[in-house]
Amino acid sequence: MAKTLKETLAAQIPKLREERVTLMKQHGDHQISTVSVAQAIGGMRGIKGMVCDTSVVEPDQGLIIRGRPIMDITDKIPEEIFWLLITGNFPTADELKLFQKELKSYGEVPNYVWKVLKAMPKTSHPMAMLDTAILTMENESAYRARYTEGMKKTEYWEPTLEDAMRVMATIHTIAAGMYRIRYKKGDPIPPSKKLDWAGDYAKMLGLPPKKGETAKMMRLYLTLHCDHEGGNVSANTCHTVGSALSDPFYAVSAGLNGLAGPLHGLANQECLNWVLDTMKKFDGAPSEDQIRDYAWETLRSGKVIPGYGHAVLRVTDPRFTAFNAFGKKYMAKDPVFQTVDRVFKIVPEVLKEHGKAKNPWPNVDAGSGALLYYYGLKEFQYYTVLFSVSRAMGMLAQLVLNRALGTAITRPKSVSTEWLIDQVK
Ligand code: CMX
Question: Are residues 271 and 343 in the same domain?
Answer without folding.
Answer: yes
